[in-house]
Amino acid sequence: MTKEQKNFICYGFLIALQLVGVIRLISNGSSTAEYDPQEATARITKYGLAERENAVHLMMGVANPDLIKEATELSDWDGTLMWPVEDGLYVRGWRPKDDTDHIGIDTSAPAGTSVLAAADGIVAYAGDALGGYGNIIFVVHKHGFITSYAHNTDFVAHMGQLVRKGQEIAHVGATGKADGPHSHWEFKYGGKVCNAGPLVHEEFLQAGTNAPMKDRPQATWEDPAKRPEGIECVAWRESRKEFGDSIKQAVGSLMNGARNAVNALRRLWHKR
Ligand SMILES: [Zn+2]
């Protein structure tokens, strides 16, 4: 084979690969927002996004009002959410009878599968400060709706970054308290955790049967003040199993801080 022939095959392959990408993008109907490092860094500083405290507040369904304002200006919101793990299988849903503390939806998928933003928004935290949740990423959407995606292997989107519905933000993993690779997905609004299930209007497959989940309740939540009847919301409680360890850690570090302060005072006292 001549050098030209080899080059021709190489370029042909690359072009075909690009075409597949474009076709996938068109068929998904999704777009991606460019990462602007300066803009993202400015938000991290302004809102203290990297702080553990911020992650804890987001967990409870609370975001900085100015961040919500920014997200509201930059995002579209049609009152529905996109299934966050393409080809992922539904494993466990919102507060099943045997585990009413489970306030999210579990989707199993091979490690490394794309985790997608369920709607437009700003990445308000990406890190591992919440113990059992492993590598968790939060997105603040228009009006202050919040989604979180736990147990990721790693992150694709950056803290402070604007993302579009369907944009890849992380990779499925088993970090934190997880028996195997899966994505634990939560949806929050106004200091409460809500059932995201009815807001997903697409069909998705159920693990075990691989049959599409049909005839599920469906709802659209456009105006935040008008929560649809079918969407249950519960107040966040510290007793949540997956969060328990994280709280213990937080109390532990507070106690350490107090001990260090006392020791420092003692040293000062003895220096006199
Ligand atoms: Zn879960």
| Beta-strand content | 15-25%
Shape: globular
Specify the biggest β-sheet.
Answer: 10 strands, mixed
Query: How many distinct folded domains?
Result: 1
The low-pLDDT segments are: 22-29
Number of strands: 13
- SSE order: HHHHEEEEEEEEEEEEEH
Determine the CATH topology: Glucose Permease (Domain IIA)
Structure characterization notes:
The model is unreliable at 22-29 (pLDDT under 50). The chain is globular, with a radius of gyration of 21 Å. Strands 1, 2, 4, 5, 6, 8, 10, 11, 12 and 13 form a 10-stranded mixed beta sheet that branches. Strands 3-9-7 form a 3-stranded antiparallel beta sheet, with no helix packed on it. It is of the alpha+beta class and 272 residues long. It has 5 helices and 13 strands. The chain has a single domain (32-257), classed as Glucose Permease (Domain IIA) (Distorted Sandwich). Bound molecules: zinc ion.
